[in-house]
Structures are given as C-alpha cells and as structure tokens.
Amino acid sequence: MQEPLERQEPLERRVMPATAAETTPDNPWPLQLLSQKLKTHIEKAPAAWVEGQIIELNKRANVSYLTIRDIDAEVSLSVTVWGSVLSQLAVPLERGARVVAQLKPDFWLKTGRLSMQGRDIRPVGLGDLLARIELLRQALAAEGLFHADRKKKLPLLPHRIGLITGRNSDAMKDVLRNAALRWPAVEFEVREVAVQGVNAVAAVMGALAELDADPRVDVIVIARGGGSLEDLLPFSHESLVRAVAAAHTPVVSAIGHEADRPLLDDVADLRASTPTDAAKRIVPDVSEELRRVDAARIQLNRRINNLLEREGDRLAQLRSRPVLANPESMLTSRHDDLVRLGGRALTAVRTQVGRHADRVAHLRAQVRALSPQKTLDRGYAVVQLADRRIVRTPAQAPAGTALKIRVAGGDFTAAATPSQPGKD
C-alpha cells in the first residue's frame, strides 16, 4: 500500500502549479481549480450545428431532455433544451424525428457534469431531405457514376444469385418465390441484414463486399419493400452508392415500389421497379424458353427443308440440261470438229508440200541445165594434165604432153602435138 502523504502545508502557503502538467502528488490542484479551468476551457468551444435523429424525448416543466443519435453510426448525445427554444417550433418534436440542432457544451461546476445545451433546433422536413438527395444525385452524375457506358450486362442465366435483403422480409420471399417459379434450378446466396436505421448502410455494404468477392455469385440483388422516405434513406447514402459503383459483379436494385427512386437505382447496373420485378428480370422463364426452343426447332426444320427443296430443284435443272441429259453429244460435237480441223490441216499440208515440190523440181532443172555434164553433152570436152589440172591455154600443154580428155561419153588419153601455124 501507498504510504499516506505527509501533512502538507496550508494552501495559502503553497505555490500553486500554473498548469496541470506541473501538478504532483506533493503539490496537487484543488478540485475546485480543476473544475474552474475545465469550465473555462469548455465555454470557449463555439456552438456547432449537428444533424441526428431523436430517440428519446422527456419533457419536464420548462425544460426537455433529448437523446440525439447519429444518422449513420451508433453514437448518441444527451441534449438539454429550454422550453423557450421548443416553443418557437411550428410542429412539436416527436421521437424518431430527424433534426438539426445548434449545440453548445456546458460544464456544471458543482457536480462536474458535462451537458449539451440546445440553443436552436429545427426539424428536417421531407423537402430538405429530397433537396439533399437531389444535390448528391447531380454531383454523382457529374462524376459519371450513373452513365450507361459503365453499367455491366447481366448474365443470360446466372448460376448463383446473391440476395441482400431484410431479415425474413416479404421482399426476400418475393424474389425467392418468383425466381424459383421461373427457373426452378436457380440458386441463391442470401444475406439478411438491416435495411433501415443507422446500421443499414454498413450492413448492406458489408454484405455487398462479401458477395462481390465470391466467384460463384454471378449477379447481386439488393431488395427491400416499400417504406417512407426516411426508411429508404440508407439506399441514397453516398458511401453505399459508391460501393455499388465499384462492385465487379452486376448489381440489381429492387428498392420499394415503382414510385420510389433512391440513388441506388441510378448507379445499379439494372433497376427493377419491385422485388418481384427483379426476380422476373434476372432469370428467364423456363416455360417461355422451352417455347422458344420449340419455335426455333420448327423454324430450323422449315429452313432445312426449304434448303433441301431448293437445292433439289437446282439439281433437277442441272440434270435436265442437254450436256447432262446426253453427255455423249459433247463428245460427238467435238469429234466432228476434230475431223473437220484434221481435214483442213491435211489439205493445208498437202498444198504446202505440192508447192514446195514444184519449187524443188524447178531448182533441180536449173541445176541440171547449169551442170558440166550438160555442157559435155553439147559436144564440149575437158582437157586435163596428168596431175588433173585443167588445161586452159596452149602453153600449158607443149608437144608431147600427156593429156586426159573427158567427153560426154567418158574419157580417154592423148598426147599434145605441135600446132601448125595459121590453123586454129
């Protein structure tokens, strides 16, 4: 155990620490001084406007005690409001009302209790909520979150559907029942969460992240039944809208009725007017698909039969042509052409041969007319020396020279004799 502090000097004799950090067990502050400093510090804090929902309301004479809870989180604050402030309201406050209030912290010196004083309080009407939603809608649209190009197409036949809805809600039953009626083999991955109140946004976002990370889920449906504007406010929350825009799995919004239009409808890849409509749009109708298959089969058979008939007619037309009806006619016509062309070729060859034969005969006659034998036949003779040189002048054959004389009938030898003068 700690030893009791020694008897300290009277307060008027001690030097009081200037700050809280300078206090010690031997030189503490009086409680009154700490309380005064806290009160001075807290009173310097300015008044602030906050928004929340009234969850408790107790009226006592000229003062009311409120408990205001944050819209999106489990955080609440006690507020004291004087009757003069509440008397200025046109409509009395009620539990569940959404308000904006100007709060100023107040510290009670005697009891050390911190409280919040409501200097002004104003209910948030439907018009104010709609104006806020519209401003947020315009801001998100300017970012392109609602553009049709970024929306993903739903699969033709999803194998597994993620469903985010209220616990044991009619919306969940509508989706499950109508989807099973249309396609009995459909499978669901259901997440039952809070769909209104302060926990709705976080709960829906958590379920969305879980289903989006599941590779078996092909499409996610966020469904809720109808309700007041305040009940559907979580589905216009900016955080939830951005989470849906960032999801990789196609998201279908099925919130409320046809007239309801939360921001979730604008950012979702598909907007269904009701949960029942969502079930009809995410899975095909098996009976209708079977009818389509039958119609397609009939149409396919009709087209095949038409094709066969058309090609059969074309084949019959081709077979009826002369060239196919009597194929040998093509050979006969070509044979006649071949005979005719052969005759023409033979005539041309014969003509050319005859013409060139006459020319050869003419040339042969010319050669024969110019040959030495013809000259000999006319009585001429060729005189040659022993070495077969032809004698062209008398000087080449002096007297006594042996000569060989060739005439038309043959040749014989002779000897040159002296020539007699005056004789040729």
Q: Can you characterise this structure?
A:
The protein is an alpha/beta fold and 424 residues long. The protein has 4 domains: 11-128, Nucleic acid-binding proteins (OB fold (Dihydrolipoamide Acetyltransferase, E2P)); 144-284, 3-Layer(aba) Sandwich (Rossmann fold), CATH 3.40.50; 296-349; 374-415, no CATH class. It is built from 12 helices and 13 strands. Helix 4 packs parallel to helix 8 (275-282) and helix 5 packs parallel to helix 6. It is elongated, with a radius of gyration of 64 Å. Residues 1-7 have low confidence and may be disordered.
What's the arrangement of secondary structure elements?
Layout: H1 31-43, E1 48-60, E2 63-69, E3 76-82, H2 83-86, E4 98-108, E5 113-123, H3 126-142, E6 160-165, H4 170-182, E7 187-192, H5 200-212, E8 219-224, H6 238-246, E9 251-255, H7 263-267, E10 270-271, H8 275-282, H9 286-320, H10 322-325, H11 328-369, H12 372-377, E11 382-384, E12 402-407, E13 410-415
Parallel strand pairs: 3-5, 6-7, 6-8, 8-9, 9-10
Antiparallel strand pairs: 1-2, 1-4, 2-3, 4-5, 11-12, 12-13
Helix pairs in contact: 4-8, 5-6
